[in-house]
């Protein structure tokens, strides 16, 4: 294992140990919806949004473990989005994180409710930090939660997913596709990075460099997701390949072809790490992680 893969594994373990405690014990008579939530939440996944969040906090010399519930809240929002994204009315996929999708196991009714539950409870979990952070930091906590709320919802993932499903079967321009990517995928990554910077009371110029970083990270990430939907290995990805073609989605490869898409991902990655290099040596680990993630085949 390299230092980066070891770090990623250690962070995944830290996050998953906490995630496993959030919904238990399951109360009767509603236990089934708790089971459905935990089924997807504890199914694995790369845990990238909480890992970026914790890594940015460390770069600002904060004790990242103190903010673990916030990191878990980000993963709960992401997991909700995957459960709903896979529903028959959306992408209609059967495999996620190497397991049957939520609705295949629990039925569409419980998959919808499990998503609702994860989204709603994520805010409770993030705000639980009010009991442990110094009183002087509570205004930062509110600002960070406000950022996440917009990014998950009306100025972010929700609007991106809405435009994405409405565009099925239509030929989009590159600019229209970029809009969808920026919102459906970029926004929650953006909130994960910027919420950490807000909690660390970062300076405005640091926040704007991190915005430049994560905007480009999100672009590269979704281009690679689209490429892997064409050429990826289902066993490694834990989700189906060919989902986009099945759903008549415009993607980077469908507009630019695979080779140009790869080039676009490489240049967005370079723009992301350039922004980090302006933040100095404390962000070297984040830069190494970024290169690792954006060279992925998983
Ligand atoms: C998949 O996200 C959905 C997109 C935004 C492309 P990830 O690739 O981060 O999925 P997991 O969390 O590892 O399962
Ligand atoms: C979905 O994009 C992004 C979300 C907000 C869930 P995709 O539909 O391409 O994600 P995958 O490929 O199913 O993970
Ligand atoms: Mg989708
Ligand atoms: Mg999908
Ligand atoms: Mg995809």
What is the share of helical residues?
over 70%
Order of helices and strands: HHHHEEHHHHHHHHH
DSSP strand count: 2
- Which spans have pLDDT < 50 for at least 5 consecutive residues? none
Q: Separation of termini? A: 16 Å
General shape:
globular
Strand content: under 5%
The structure class reads mainly alpha
Average pLDDT figure: 97
| Main sheet characteristics | 2 strands, antiparallel
Radius of gyration: 18 Å
Bound molecules: 3-methylbut-3-enyl trihydrogen diphosphate, magnesium ion
Structure description:
By secondary structure, the chain is an all-alpha fold. 71% of the residues lie in helices and 1% in strands. It has 13 helices and 2 strands; from the N terminus they run ααααββααααααααα. It has helices at residues 3-22, 31-41, 48-59, 68-85, 102-127, 138-152, 157-166, 174-199, 204-231, 234-237, 243-246, 252-277, 284-294, and strands at 95-96, 99-100. The protein has a two-stranded antiparallel ribbon with strand order 1-2. A hairpin with a 2-residue loop joins strand 1 and strand 2. Helix 9 packs antiparallel against helix 12. Bound molecules: 3-methylbut-3-enyl trihydrogen diphosphate (IPE) (2 copies) and magnesium ion (MG) (3 copies). One magnesium ion binds next to loops.
